[in-house]
Amino acid sequence: MPDRHTLAETEQATRERVQHLPLDFAASHALLSLYRAANAVRGHLTNNVLRPHDLTWTGFLVLWTLWIWDSMETRDIAESVGISKGTLTGVAKTLAARDLIERIPSTEDRRLVNLKLSPTGLELMEEIYPEFNKTESRIVGDLDARQLETMTSALRTLVETSERD
């Protein structure tokens, strides 16, 4: 569901609220746009692609991570997805109950557990990801190739800067 205020209205209200502070409004507006875009895209993909498969955004990210990297230790998955280990525990229980992932105890340290996609999870990802990507393509469809390349490059720079700092 879209925010009830437009992006321009939110930028203007922000400027009015904090105009007395020495702020970098260009940076603020850029990242406000990034947050809004991320939330809008996430909501659209969740509602139109994931929900019909009874998946949450976080559940999908865990499945996608395991699909790309095969088996991973739980703490590494949590870090990669950007969630706490506690949150991952709940998500993993749900995915395991649906037979989408398998838990593999470590042979070196019984406290550690690896997760991997089950055959059912692999099937689901093979089914759902083309639909997910088709929706991704529609979302960026109004950008020409140059705009898409520029946006991707700029976002990579933001990620690299944030991870470096």
From TrEMBL:
<dbReference type="InterPro" id="IPR039422">
    <property type="entry name" value="MarR/SlyA-like"/>
</dbReference>
<dbReference type="InterPro" id="IPR036388">
    <property type="entry name" value="WH-like_DNA-bd_sf"/>
</dbReference>
<protein>
    <submittedName>
        <fullName>TyrZ transcriptional regulator YwaE</fullName>
    </submittedName>
</protein>
<feature type="domain" description="HTH marR-type">
    <location>
        <begin position="27"/>
        <end position="160"/>
    </location>
</feature>
<keyword id="KW-0805">Transcription regulation</keyword>
<dbReference type="Pfam" id="PF01047">
    <property type="entry name" value="MarR"/>
</dbReference>
<dbReference type="InterPro" id="IPR036390">
    <property type="entry name" value="WH_DNA-bd_sf"/>
</dbReference>
<keyword id="KW-0804">Transcription</keyword>
<dbReference type="InterPro" id="IPR000835">
    <property type="entry name" value="HTH_MarR-typ"/>
</dbReference>
<keyword id="KW-0238">DNA-binding</keyword>
<dbReference type="InterPro" id="IPR023187">
    <property type="entry name" value="Tscrpt_reg_MarR-type_CS"/>
</dbReference>
